[in-house]
Design a protein that fits this description.
HSP20-like_chaperone, single chain, Immunoglobulin-like, 3-stranded antiparallel β-sheet, alpha+beta
């Protein structure tokens, strides 16, 4: 037995079978490239009057670029150019009601993440101010606290119930602490 002769004979035999089975080859190649999009016939596209301009601006965009403010635009919405008041130092804390069964036994579905928090606590620093100097407004999504020197407007990270909130002002440290409950059904 010669190895080279056997390989040559096998090669010739395969070439003869490949020439006769062009249909099977085409089918196997088509099968290799089959996917979900090949099962559905493509829909013919025809131009619709007036859509050419929208497609040029951004295909599939919900809003145009002019309608969406950038982050700087949102910061400018916080203070107008004529308003020279400074933004006070502030912090946002997430508060959660837990008891010993949550901490030690793990019997509830609560996690330490912010998704399971029940309240938001916002602390804003208004040094050398009195309570009567500060104007506070809390809505479902924003908090606004203003004085003669400071203006704070925040978009809250979660929707809150402004009617059930409470606010405390420590005149010694000049810290305004606002605690509002998170609306659970809207957060989920």
């Amino acid at each position: 037995m010669s190895g080279y002769g056997d390989i040559t004979a096998l090669s010739n035999m395969l070439q003869e079978t490949n020439n006769g089975n062009e249909e099977e080859e085409a089918f196997s190649q088509a099968k290799a490239f089959a996917g979900p999009s090949s099962a559905v016939a493509p829909k013919p596209t025809r131009p619709v009057a007036g859509k050419e301009k929208k497609e040029e601006e951004g295909a599939g965009d919900i809003w145009s670029v002019d309608e969406v403010p950038d982050e700087e635009g949102l910061k400018l919405a916080n203070t107008s150019e004529s308003d020279t008041r400074a933004v006070p130092q502030h912090e946002i804390y997430h508060k959660q009601d837990v008891d010993s069964s949550d901490v030690y036994l793990g019997l509830s579905d609560k996690t330490p993440g912010s998704a399971d928090c029940t309240h938001l606590v916002i602390k804003a620093h208004f040094p050398s101010h009195k309570l009567s100097d500060i104007d506070l407004d809390v809505t479902k999504n924003t908090l606004t606290a203003m004085s003669d020197k400071y203006k704070l407007k925040l978009y809250l990270p979660q929707p809150v119930d402004p009617d059930k909130g409470s606010a405390k002002f420590d005149s010694k440290s000049g810290i305004l602490a606002v605690e509002v409950p998170v609306l659970e059904k809207e957060w989920e």
